[in-house]
Design a protein that fits this description.
By secondary structure, the chain is an alpha+beta fold. Helix content is about 30%, strand content about 20%. Helix 1 runs antiparallel to helix 2 and helix 5 crosses helix 10. The longest helix has 17 residues. About 50% of the residues are buried. Its cofactor is FAD.
Length: about 525
């Protein structure tokens, strides 16, 4: 009854055409052309979406939040709901209403001189790139592997890109946030009316509040400043290959040292033979035939088959892709420094390609020949084409711990995690993002839908092993948010006590995204614990 009253109120706020009483329509188009809400790769526990509401203004968001409080109807917030492998637009709590912000798609400002934009949550990386291209601006944005996602949503989830500004959350500057009671807040220098430095200086005066709204349920971000880089005069993409699996240790040690010395500015992506085989099989049906019955990823691909295909294709054990950006005079010296350092890594092969702008001009992203990694800031959806949400498609789930920037420790974890994954008859695909002082080490598990029941067991086994090594995920699927949060064990879970206290204080009715990142109101947490025990 309360839900019906809320939906009637929502129709009065956003119009009946922007309320979906069933989650089968209204979402931005996703895999296989679907416009349904939910997780395109659902695991064995239900996280079914409920009805959906789609505001297109800040005032409408505020009214919806007030109505949700009035009728005590929780809402799960998504910017566009395209975080594949982490739950899509599905809620933690089964049948929660989806607050879908994709219609809030205005680019408020793009500033070429200072290299920033202010955007609403519905703005995609593709949309922002196309607007920069249309205006012929000398700017390169950072984009993730799949460009149809929200700039705001990806940043709030601490998503990763491939240019110098790849750690998106570090380049966020200023937010506008609807709070759980419907009030409106601006962070940083946005506290000043008509501030000229809101998207330029993130510190503000007094406590910094922006961090409270990353991976949380404390507010709804309706505007965000995001900073990126001026277009360079020259760009060099570099690929380093090594022949043996154990070469991962010296490869990573060299990469992270080059980054700390500011020779390499964007985070190298590391991938291995499995990724190369999948890419080759997609392009060439003859290679797909070599995988035979294992080509659908329902089971672990035997090592001897991987070795056979790798030998036929002449594949390295590991590839690291990264780039250099800047004036051509600087590029030449930096490139020589990179090549000199990798001479010390046994068997390393370095290839590179340089693009130079016309003298006196800057390179546009679209002037650079694109490759496997969007290091020039050109978004696409090509990587999404490998997947399908259908029952005979290819699905994936991500296990994503953060490790120290050590090749030795990464290799140790990789060997252990690979064995655990294979013991569950699944395949470990390395998707490692190497930063100067940490590595986001994604085990990108691709699987046939028939294998989904094994995903919970392998996830928990990986979590338990990482816990022994002192590692925690930076991001996780909705099915594992509570379990991941339970590993925040310092001082008997002080972090969880604090996040619950904040939730009780600012959202006493538990209206916003209950359970996100394991954050609950105290009463809901007790109820949840009771359910888990049963």
């Amino acid at each position: 009854m309360q839900l019906e009253k809320f939906l009637t109120a929502a129709e009065a706020i956003v119009g009946s055409e922007n309320v979906s009483r069933e989650p089968t329509s209204g979402a931005p188009e996703g895999l296989d052309g679907s416009v349904a809400y939910g997780d395109p790769f659902p695991l064995s526990r239900p996280h079914r979406p409920g009805p959906a509401v789609r505001p297109d203004t800040v005032d409408q968001v505020r009214e919806l939040v007030r109505a949700a409080n009035r009728f005590e109807v929780p809402m799960w917030t998504v910017s566009r709901g395209k975080n594949l492998g982490y739950g899509g637009s599905a809620p933690v709590v089964d049948r929660n209403v989806i607050l879908d912000l994709h219609r809030m798609n205005k680019i408020i400002e793009i500033n070429e001189e200072y290299a920033y934009a202010i955007v609403e949550p519905g703005v995609t990386f593709i949309q922002l790139y196309e607007e920069i291209k249309k205006r012929k601006l000398n700017l390169w944005i950072s984009v993730p592997a799949i460009g149809w996602g929200s700039v705001v949503g990806n940043t709030l989830e601490r998503g990763i890109g491939y240019t110098q500004d790849a750690a998106h959350y570090k380049h966020q500057c200023g937010m506008e946030v609807v709070l759980p009671d419907g009030d409106l807040l601006r962070t940083g220098m946005g506290v000043v009316e008509d501030s000229k430095v809101w998207p330029l200086y993130s510190g503000g005066f007094g406590p910094g509040l922006d961090g409270l709204f990353f991976q949380s349920n404390y507010g709804i971000v309706t505007k965000m400043g995001i900073q990126f880089s001026p277009a360079p005069e020259a760009y060099t993409r570099i690929l380093v290959e090594v022949p043996e699996e154990q070469d991962l240790a010296p490869l990573v040690g060299t990469l992270t040292d080059l980054m700390r010395r500011r020779i390499v500015a964007n985070p190298p992506q590391l991938y291995g033979r499995m990724t190369l085989i999948i890419g080759a099989a997609r392009r060439d049906p003859e290679i797909a035939k070599l995988l035979g019955e294992h080509g659908n990823f329902a089971r672990h691909i035997p090592h001897d088959l991987i070795s056979k295909v790798s030998s036929i294709l002449g594949l390295p054990a590991w590839c690291a892709g990264f780039a250099l950006y800047g004036p051509p005079e600087a590029q030449a010296g930096l490139l020589e420094a990179v090549k000199r350092r990798f001479k010390q890594v046994k068997g390393a092969k370095v290839t590179h390609e340089t693009f130079n702008a016309v003298p006196g001009e800057y390179l546009r992203s679209e002037d650079v020949t694109q490759d496997f990694l969007p290091q020039s800031g050109v978004p696409s959806i090509d990587h999404a084409l490998a997947f399908s949400s259908k029952e005979d498609g290819l699905w994936h789930n991500c296990y994503s711990p953060v490790l120290p920037p050590s090749g030795r420790e990464l290799y140790e974890w990789y060997v252990r995690a690979k064995k655990i994954t294979e013991d569950h008859d699944l395949n470990f695909l390395a998707d490692f993002h190497v930063f100067d002082r940490y590595i986001i080490s994604i085990n990108l598990i691709m699987f046939h839908p028939s294998a989904k029941a094994r995903l919970h067991d392998v996830q928990y086994a990986l979590m338990e092993d990482s816990k022994k090594l002192g590692y925690l995920e930076y991001r996780t699927h909705i099915s594992f948010m509570d379990a991941t949060a339970a590993n925040q064990t310092f001082n008997n879970g002080a972090f969880g006590r604090f996040t619950t206290m904040l939730k009780d204080t600012i959202d006493p009715n538990g209206i916003l995204s209950p359970g996100k990142q394991g954050i609950w109101n105290s009463t809901a947490k007790l109820e949840r614990l009771g359910l888990e025990e049963k």
